[in-house]
């Protein structure tokens, strides 16, 4: 486009044309710039598409390899499926055979169960008969044993009673005077304890009295208190001492080594009569008995009186 300069004043039309031409140039420049910018953007997209294509190619290679591996696995799976199908067919055949065996076993079990039930009924009948017979025998034997036991107890009691009666002791205490005996003519008195019974006597205790009053003294103290002389000899009548049948114990012996007059005899006899004694003893069957001397305040219990 050419512009014609003139020294004449420009017309309005020319200015409008000039401005239009300027805007046209600017539009061309802007359009060209946009074209360049769009071209750069397209280049970037092309580069990105190239990268995407490259990645897609790599993925395609990977997918191809995966497809080959998958095909290989599919082939192997197919082989295994065929093998499994064959095994299933064999198992079906085996199951059919086992089912037939199970039916046969069930039939046999039914036969055996019926036989067992019949045998159980027979055994129960036999058991009931045997139990009834056994109960009858036990009852009969029990009655017989009860009679025999009762008879045995009676015999045992009779034997025990006989043994008790034939083993009863009987202690007897008495005073024995010995006048003018010995080299010097001593005058003595003895208290003798004799077992006149059939069995041994076991001493439990001995109690004393003076003129019928119980005293807590020993026999030596009593003899001294009554001035009955000296030289006494005593035997052991402590608790636990045993006196056999026919055995005689000199329980006390005392006197004076001189001849005595009739008055002395009377003195001794009167004093000796003041001494009371009770011997508590028992038999081998623990029957409690008593033997009395003179005026002891209690009555004696003779062992033989227990069975009168």
Structural account:
By secondary structure, this protein is an alpha+beta fold. The chain is built from 3 helices and 9 strands, in the order αββββαβββαββ. The strands form 2 sheets. Strands 3, 4, 6, 8 and 9 form a 5-stranded antiparallel beta sheet that branches. A 4-stranded antiparallel beta sheet has the order 1-2-7-5, with helices on one face. A hairpin with a 2-residue loop joins β3 (201-210) and β4. The longest helix is centred in the first third of the chain and has 154 residues, at 12-165. The radius of gyration is 73 Å and the shape is elongated.
Topology:
Elements: H1 12-165, E1 171-181, E2 186-195, E3 201-210, E4 213-215, H2 219-225, E5 230-233, E6 242-243, E7 248-256, H3 262-274, E8 275-282, E9 288-293
Antiparallel strand pairs: 1-2, 2-7, 3-4, 3-6, 3-8, 5-7, 8-9
Q: Count every beta strand, where a strand is a DSSP E run of 2 or more residues.
A: 9
Average pLDDT figure: 77
For the record, give the distance between the C-alpha atoms at the N and C termini, rounded to a whole number. Answer: 184 Å
How does the overall form come out from the CA principal axes?
Answer: elongated
Number of helices: 3
Question: Whole-number radius of gyration?
Answer: 73 Å
Q: Report the uncertain regions.
A: 1-8
Compressed to H and E, one letter per element, the order equals: HEEEEHEEEHEE
Helix content: 55-70%
Structural class: alpha+beta
Proportion of residues in extended strands: 15-25%
Major β-sheet, in short?
5 strands, antiparallel
């Amino acid at each position: 486009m050419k512009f014609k300069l003139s020294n004449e004043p420009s017309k309005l039309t020319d200015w409008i044309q000039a401005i239009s031409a300027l805007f046209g140039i600017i539009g061309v420049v802007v359009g060209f710039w946009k074209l360049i910018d769009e071209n750069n953007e397209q280049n970037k997209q092309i580069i990105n598409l190239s990268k995407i294509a490259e990645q897609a190619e790599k993925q395609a290679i990977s997918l191809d390899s995966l497809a080959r591996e998958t095909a290989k696995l599919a082939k192997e799976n197919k082989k295994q499926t065929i093998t499994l199908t064959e095994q299933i067919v064999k198992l079906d055949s085996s199951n059919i055979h086992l089912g037939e065996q199970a039916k046969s076993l069930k039939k046999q079990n039914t036969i055996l169960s019926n036989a067992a039930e019949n045998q159980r009924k027979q055994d129960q009948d036999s058991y009931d008969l045997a139990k009834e017979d056994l109960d009858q025998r036990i009852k009969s034997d029990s009655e017989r044993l009860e009679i025999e036991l009762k008879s045995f107890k009676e015999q045992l009691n009779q034997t025990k009673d006989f043994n008790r009666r034939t083993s009863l002791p009987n202690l007897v205490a008495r005073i024995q005077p010995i006048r003018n005996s010995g080299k010097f003519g001593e005058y003595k008195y003895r208290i003798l304890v004799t077992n006149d019974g059939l069995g041994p006597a076991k001493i439990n205790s001995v109690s004393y009295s003076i003129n019928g009053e119980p005293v807590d003294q020993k026999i030596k103290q009593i003899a001294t208190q009554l001035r009955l002389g000296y030289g006494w000899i005593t035997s052991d009548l402590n608790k636990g001492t045993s006196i056999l049948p026919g055995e005689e114990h000199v329980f006390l012996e005392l006197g004076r080594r001189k001849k005595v007059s009739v008055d002395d005899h009377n003195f001794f006899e009167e004093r000796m009569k003041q001494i009371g004694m009770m011997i508590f003893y028992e038999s081998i069957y623990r029957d409690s008995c008593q033997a009395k001397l003179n005026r002891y305040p209690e009555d004696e219990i003779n062992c033989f009186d227990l069975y009168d």
